[in-house]
Amino acid sequence: MGRRSRQRASAPPQRERTPAARAAAPAPPTTTAARRSRRDEAPLAPWGRFPLIELCALSAIVLGVWGFVAHNGVLLTGAAFLGSIAGLEVAIREHLGGYRSHSLVLAGLCAVVTLTVLAFAHAERSLMLGGAAVALVVAFIGFRQLFKRRSGGVGMRVR
Question: What 3-state class would DSSP assign to 158?
Answer without folding.
Answer: coil
